[in-house]
Amino acid sequence: MHRRLAFPSALLVLVAASATLSAPEASAQPKKPAVAAKKKPIRDELPDPARKAWDSAKELFEANDYAGALVEYTRAYELSKNPRVLFNVGVAEKSLKHYARASARWNQQLVESAGKMTFEEERDIRDAISTVQSFVSTVEITANEDGATLFIDNLETGTTPFKAPVPIDVGRHTLALRKDGFLEKSEVMDISSGQPKKASFKIEPALKKSLVSIQVAGAPGANVIIDGIDMGLAPFKGEIAAGRHTFEARAGGYVTARQTSEVVYKEPLDLTLNVSQERHEGKVKVSVNESSATIEIDGKIVGSGAWEGVLPSGGHQLVVRKPGYQTYSTDIALSDDQVRSVTVPLQAETRGQGWVWWTAGTLAVIGGGAVASYFILKPSETAKVSGTIDPQIPVYAAHFRY
Fold it and tell me: Which residues contact 327 (CB under 8 A, 6 or more apart)?
């Protein structure tokens, strides 16, 4: 078997000599029941893919590439699930000075091969374990988070919680605890033979979060928006990073509800966002200096003197009328929720310059007609008049004598 490559030549000689000296005594011992005295080579028991990995591992090991050999021996085991391969996996670990990991592999082989090993195989495994025991100690690991992975010198060792102390090689090592979403915590520790150690890890979230629950009232089918990111239909429940955040509820035809709140680490936050239907309207306030003036909006009389009311958003026409006063008319543009105030100063109607000229013209026409009549009807001053009146006296002058 290739597993003998795992031990220094001096150790192999010692194991061989010990076997020779004890051979008579061993032959006198009763035979192990139900187990063949000799088994065929491990390679012959492997399926083709595992056999190829085994051959690659052998070549790498003989070239002193123990890390490469470890990978291939491990692959051969995973492809075959043959526990006999674990012995060589342990040999590769030991060659890399991973004594605790080598011991773990050999102990795994003892468990998986129980009742199936020859006496010699079991003895070799136990001997191999004993050769590394003085180089292995233990460390008791405790942590504040379950499911965190322990790494010893960047080699994955297991996950929390650990039911028993973790085997560790003698010497200086870096222990690190890692978990997704948490900050890594590490510790450098010196391990001595026969001196168990303890290590306690407290890891903190990389992004501290708290549970946030959001309910929406007033609109079915509203979406929850957190910091501009659509989180889906309400209600929402999930972990949010500690800090200040803006929470919104949006639904078609409704006014967006918005609230900015502080999320405190490890303190749950419950929010209810109330939404209301959109109102596309505004308010108009009209006041007139004449209390009896009629106010019209879009051709409809709505009041007199003063009026206040709600109108749809958009354009509207305001008209104010009163007999004897000039009509006031203007357009009003109204946006959503806007309040417009309009003050109307009605002005009385006055007779302007046109009336003066018309009056003067009329008088001129009348006066002109009278003068014309006078000259038309006036007799000539030199006309001869028969009678006893002095002909030299004007006729019109004589007309006023009695």
Answer: 319, 320, 321
Q: What is the identity of the amino acid at 130? A: S
| Chain segment 64-77, per-residue pLDDT in tens | 999 999 999 999 99
For the ranges 86-100, 209-223, 357-371, which has the lowest average pLDDT?
Answer: 357-371
Distance of alpha carbon 205 from its chain centroid, rounded?
A: 17
Structure tokens at 163: 């039911």
- b vs e for 72-88, b when ≥16 Cβ sit within 10 Å of the residue's Cβ? bbbbbbebbebbbbbbb
Domains within the chain, CATH numbers bracketed: 2-134 (1.25.40.10), 136-201 (2.60.40.10), 210-277 (2.60.40.1120), 281-344 (2.60.40.10), 361-399 (no CATH)
Rounded (10°) angle between helices 66-80 and 48-62? 160
CA–CA dist 110, 287 (Å, integer): 102
In what helix (H) or strand (E) does residue 321 lie, and over which residues does it extend?
A: strand 314-321
For residue 31, pLDDT beyond 90: no
User: CA dist 378 to 369, 389, 401, Å?
Assistant: 14, 18, 17
Q: Does position 8 have pLDDT exceeding 60, yes or no?
A: no
Residue with the larger pLDDT of the pair 20 and 385: 385
Dihedral sign computed on CA atoms, order 92, 98, 99, 103 = negative
Complete DSSP assignment for 249-274: EE-TTEEPEEEEEEEPTT--EEEEEE
259 CB-side CA count, 13 A:
16
Find the mean pLDDT for residues 110-136: 94
Of 197, 202, 147, nearest in space to 168 by CA = 197
Residue 144, CB-side half-sphere exposure with 13 Å CA sphere: 9
